[in-house]
Structure prediction request, 185 residues.
Amino acid sequence: MQGYGAAIRRGFKEATGDYLIVSEPDGTFRGRDIVKLLSYADDFDVVYGSRTVKELIWQGANMGIFLKWGNYCVAKMMEFLFNTTSLTDVGCTMRCVNRKALKHLQPYFTVNGSFFGPEMMVLSILMNMKIIQLPVNYTRRVGSSSVTGNKVVAFFLGLRMIRLIWGYRFKGWFSPNTYQEYRDS
Ligand SMILES: Nc1nc2c(ncn2[C@@H]2O[C@H](COP(=O)(O)OP(=O)(O)OP(=O)(O)O)[C@@H](O)[C@H]2O)c(=O)[nH]1
Ligand SMILES: [Mg+2]
Prediction:
C-alpha cells in the first residue's frame, strides 16, 4: 500500500472541477459539512476542517483527550511558528482547495504517508495563501484504524509531524525563495 498521502495526491491528479474537497472513506466525516467549507471557498484559497471542537465530536469518535490535545498543541505550535491564522487541528483530512492554489502546491508535495495533511497546511502557509480552519463534525469510524487507533503509533506520528513542521520553518527562514509566494503568482 502506498499510503494516505499518496492516495490523496493521486486523487488530486485525477479530480476535475474548480474546488476540490478531500474527505475519508471511513465514515468519520459528514457530507453536509461541505456546505460550510464551500461558503468560505470564495474568500480563501484553502479551507481546512478541524475535528477538535468539543460540540462536534460525536459519541464514539476517535478523538479522546490524547488525540484532541495532541492535535491541538501541534496546531498551536504551527500557528505560533508561522504567525498564521488560528489553527486547532493538524490531522483533519476534510478540506477544500481551489484548483489554482492546488496547482501551485502540487509540485511541492513530498509526503506519501500519514503526515501529508500537515505538509499541505505548512506549504499553504509558506506560500502566503489565504487559509482558514473551520469546525467540522467528527463521528465514529467504520473499520479499524491503521494509525490513530494505537496511542504509541499516534505519538510517533505526532513527533514526525513536529519534525516536519520545524523542517519547513527552517527552510522558510534559511531559503525563503524555495517556496514561490502564491499571491504574487
Ligand atoms: N487509498 C488509500 N487510502 C488510504 C491509505 N492509507 C489510508 N487510507 C485512507 O485514509 C484514511 C485515513 O487513514 P487511516 O490510516 O485509517 O487513519 P485514521 O485512523 O482514519 O486516522 P484519523 O482519521 O486521523 O483518526 C482512511 O479512511 C483510510 O481508508 C492508502 O494507502 N491508500
Ligand atoms: Mg479517519
Q: What stands out?
A: The radius of gyration is 15 Å. Helices lie at 4-14, 33-41, 65-82, 99-105, 116-126, 151-174.
